[in-house]
Every structure is written in structure tokens, then in C-alpha cells.
Amino acid sequence: MSADSKYYPWLPFVTLLRKEILRFMRVSTQTLLTPIVTASLYLFVFGATLGDRLHVLPGFSYAQFVVPGLIIMGVINNTFANTSSSLFMSRYLGGIVDLLVTPVSPPQFIMAYTLAAMLRGLLVGTVVWLISTVFAALPWESPLLAVLMAVIASFLFAQFGLIAAIYAHNFDTLSMYSNFLILPLVYLGGVFYPISILPDPWGTFSYLNPLFYLIDGFRHAIIGVGDTSYLVAFGVSFGIATILFFWAAWLIGKGYRLRA
């Protein structure tokens, strides 16, 4: 252990966190601007063109309904992309070997990657919300709960990104997590429609979608209406986040597929 890490035990963690933040900031056109542009196109389609023409909830325009889902979708996608791409590239290029011999403990390792990814995801979500104010005014029924759910969602998908990066064999495998798992679950989780309007058995099946609870809990906190209670939405989301955290900690603590 170096003298610096002996007297400043948080120095390795801070250094790794700074490195991860600088990594996505250096390519901000790809990591921040591109998802914001994509979300803006969604907002234009569902806000400017359909916002006042469709109504899926009494008392709310379609734009007010769909905007919370688009915000949390931006948080989810970008948080996952940050941890999964960063850790996988470190494995692929061999840089993870140098990192593993540094005095960074597994919890510090996880939290450095997690906090950087959460920062990226929440930044994108915040900008999407700011842009959405052009198309719809949100009531923000419970702003603290909305922020809490966004934090839980970003933390959850930061852990999932770490796990995916460890298990992925190549870039194609990594992209499959986004294209064939996250994307369908997001779209089927009630981003564009309330599951209460679905006929059985599809409405019942939607309750088996873990992303439904993130989306519904976040929307419920913003507009005050949801398909499930706060207790259930936050309980399920927090429970999944906790399981994924311990799963990631176990894999990283063992060095599973991280060492050559």
C-alpha cells in the first residue's frame, strides 16, 4: 500500500471516480448530447403532435402522462450504458488488470463506477425534463419522491451495467442486454400507456415487469396518479437494487472474469 493511500484512504476511490466522470465528459457529444437529442425527438412526437389530442388519464394531457416515462427512460438507459461500457472496455483492453492491483476495495470500486454512471443518467434526465417544459407543465405532486425514485433507478441500472459488463463475452453480447432486455421491458413497462387500460392477461403480466415499478412510481410521484401504490413501487425497486448491488459486490470481490 502506498503512503498516499495509507494516510488518505479515500484517495484511490476519489481518483477512480474522477477518472470515470472525465471519461464520459470527454465524449459528451456521444454520452450526453446524443441521448438528449433522441429524447427531444420523442418529446416532439408525443408532446407537440399528440400531446393535446390523446388522453389516457382523466385530467391529464398525453404529454403530461408520457413525459415522466421519457425522463426515467433517459436515466435508465444512460446509467446502464455508462457502467457497462466502461467496465467492459477495461476488461477488453486489459486496463482492468492495472486497476485491480491498486488499493481500491470492492465497495470503493463499485461506488466509483456507480456514482459516475448515476451522474450521467441524472444529468440526461434533468435536461430531458427541462426540454419537456416546452411541451407540458408537470404538477410535481411529490418532488422528493420523484427524485428518490430517479436515484433508485439510476443506482439499480448502474449495478446491472456492472453485472452485464462482467458476464458479456463481446460487444454483441453487451448490446443484447440493451436491445433485447432493457428496451422491451421499458416499452412494455408503461412508458407510453397505463397498464390499467390493458385487457387481461396482458395487464396482469405487466406486474411481472420489474421496470414497471420504476416507471409507475416515478410518474405517480410527479402527476399523483399511478397503477400501484408508492409502497409497492418503491419497495420492489429498492429490493431489486439491493439484490443487484450484492450480486455485483460478490462478482467483483471474487474478481470473477476480471483477472486474466
From TrEMBL:
Domain ABC transmembrane type-2, residue spans: 26-255
Pfam families: ABC2_membrane
One Gene Ontology CC term in the entry: ATP-binding cassette (ABC) transporter complex
Transmembrane segments: 32-50, 62-81, 117-138, 144-168, 180-198, 230-252
Record's keyword annotation contains Disulfide bond: no
Main subcellular localisation: membrane
Keyword tags: Cell membrane, Membrane, Transmembrane, Transmembrane helix, Transport
Membrane topology: Multi-pass membrane protein
Protein location: Cell membrane; Membrane
One Gene Ontology term of the molecular function aspect: ABC-type transporter activity
Similarity-based family: Belongs to the ABC-2 integral membrane protein family.
Classification via PANTHER family: INNER MEMBRANE TRANSPORT PERMEASE YADH, INNER MEMBRANE TRANSPORT PERMEASE YADH-RELATED
Stated name of the protein: Transport permease protein
Organism: Desulfuromusa kysingii
